[in-house]
Amino acid sequence: MSTTVNTARPLSHSPSMRNSTRFSTYSTAPTLTPSIAPSHLSTESADTDSNKADPDSSSTQTLKVVHSQLARFDDPRLQNQRYVLSEGKADEHSKLALGAKLERALGRRMSGQDAVFTPKKAKTAVVA
């Protein structure tokens, strides 16, 4: 029985213990080889230096620059001038928006395409 890389714990599903065959999703060919798909439980890749958070990394610097540029747009004088709807006014606006939405939906209906009932023509017997 084989063991894992990091511990002496035996693997629960080693290739030698497999009794059934696995079928490939793409080719439907049977295979007995184990899958080498990456695992989110793997601790081996998490310990590498490239995955550690570096405060001076380029992505962190980029975020700091974007944050500082967005902070320049925040002007308290303009925030004081901003109009805030009262609860009654917000309720009225939502009702008007719902009415407009309903009007648009009704306008898209197939109006004028109703069936027209016409009287059937009487069958005439052909005398030969």
From TrEMBL:
Composition bias type Polar residues, residue spans: 1-45
Region (Disordered), start-end ranges: 1-63, 108-128
Protein name, per record: Uncharacterized protein
Lineage, opening ranks: Eukaryota, Fungi, Dikarya, Ascomycota, Pezizomycotina
